[in-house]
Amino acid sequence: MAIDLRKVEPLGSKSVLLEQAMRRQQGMGGGNIGSGHQMNDIDMSDMVTPDFEWLKEDKIAIEGLVKQMDASIGMLANQIKDVDTASKKSRVMIEKEQQLLFKQIRTLNSLLKNQVDLFGSIERQMSAVELKQNNLLPQIGIGLMAGLMSAVTILATAPWLTVLIEGMR
């Protein structure tokens, strides 16, 4: 036979609870249904007085945790805002550096194009001049012209090349 513990007071000791459950079970089987003696069956001497102080302490602890969480969320929001601002600044700086680099590349390309055009015109001039095999003077002149053109090209592109190399670092 099973004992029904659903109607037993939960704050009593185990022996009192078991005794109450057995009395109720016997009371139901014996025909005492609705007799009103249920309060008389409860032995109040073993009952634990309810202490709700722990509930107040838990409420205070939970409120403290909520305040800490709010402060942490606020700090996190500020940190996210700072990171977002820093990323925007760095993005703007990178865009400006890219624009400067593209301008430098365009300038360098135009200088190289001018150099190619200059070498093309020198080549055309050299083909127009009749060279004699043993005539040393025109060959020296052509060598001097080519050397001067190379020196001018190196002098013109050296500052741009250093800026370009520094920009790539």
- The span between the termini is 88 Å
**Strand content bin:** under 5%
Structural class determined from secondary elements: mainly alpha
**Averaged pLDDT, please?**
78
Domains, number: 2
| Count of distinct strands | 0
Helix content range: over 70%
Low-confidence stretches: 31-36
Give helix and strand order, one letter per element, not per position.
HHHH
Number of helices: 4
Tell me, what's the shape? rod-shaped
**Backbone CA Rg:** 50 Å
Largest sheet: none
Topology:
Elements: H1 14-29, H2 38-41, H3 53-128, H4 136-168
Structural features, described:
Helices cover 76% and strands 0% of the residues. By secondary structure, the chain is mainly alpha-helical. The chain has two domains: 1-50, no CATH class; 51-168, no CATH class. The longest helix is centred in the middle third of the chain and has 76 residues, at 53-128.
